[in-house]
User: Which sequence fits this backbone?
């Protein structure tokens, strides 16, 4: 009963503030066994938490274009398209967080950044060098889609289209495993909704990268 009352209170507060934020904590896990000459995907799955009110059916889900390969060698790029699909009845803005974790055979965490893991097709917006790209790095751990996603549509192009592990990583990576988690957060398209839901204030953000994103989303806001 206490949980139900708490849930009703949350929904009531959201209605009073006139913004609806959908947070889909979507976990996309790509578990790999990495050897000196061979790596292979063990599993891929996604879990979606859906928020839907009686008056405002609003729902986004992870789009994961991936098929498990029979084999996968370090240095190879395996097709894996990651985006978000609007499965509700209202338009929305969307952002994705991608987290990678590489562990040694004994469970020790290993470096998983640049030089270890690469995302093929990652095409990011830059006002001078790449003004036509539709994804931007917010500098806060999220990649933002610079468009409004209509009901039934998937944010296009995907954030990335392939995943690859570097070749010659050394003996520490023999028998290692890698996990990729993708978190999807979507917001309504009113100015107050995405600003308050994502950045904690209805005012424009202070960070330069986020302000640039905000300037692009503002004309698309309803």
Assistant:
């Amino acid at each position: 009963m206490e949980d139900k009352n708490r849930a009703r209170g949350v929904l009531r507060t959201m209605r009073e503030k006139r913004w609806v934020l959908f947070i889909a904590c979507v976990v996309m896990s790509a578990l790999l066994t990495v050897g000196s000459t061979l790596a292979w995907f063990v599993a891929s799955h996604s879990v979606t938490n859906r928020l839907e009110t009686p008056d405002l059916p609003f729902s986004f889900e992870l789009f994961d274009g991936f098929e498990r390969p029979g084999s996968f060698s370090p240095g190879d790029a395996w097709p894996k398209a990651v985006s978000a699909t609007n499965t509700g009845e209202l338009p929305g803005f969307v952002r994705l967080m991608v987290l990678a974790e590489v562990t040694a055979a004994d469970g020790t965490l290993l470096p998983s950044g640049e030089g270890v893991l690469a995302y093929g097709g990652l095409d990011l917006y830059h006002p001078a060098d790449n003004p036509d790209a539709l994804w931007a790095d917010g500098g806060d751990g999220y990649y933002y889609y610079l468009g409004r996603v209509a009901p039934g549509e998937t944010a296009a192009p995907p954030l990335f289209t392939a995943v690859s592990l570097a070749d010659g990583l050394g003996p520490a990576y023999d028998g290692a495993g890698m996990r990729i988690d993708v978190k999807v957060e979507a917001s309504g398209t009113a100015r107050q909704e995405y600003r308050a839901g994502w950045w904690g204030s209805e005012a424009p953000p202070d960070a330069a990268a986020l302000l640039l994103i905000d300037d692009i989303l503002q004309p698309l806001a309803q």
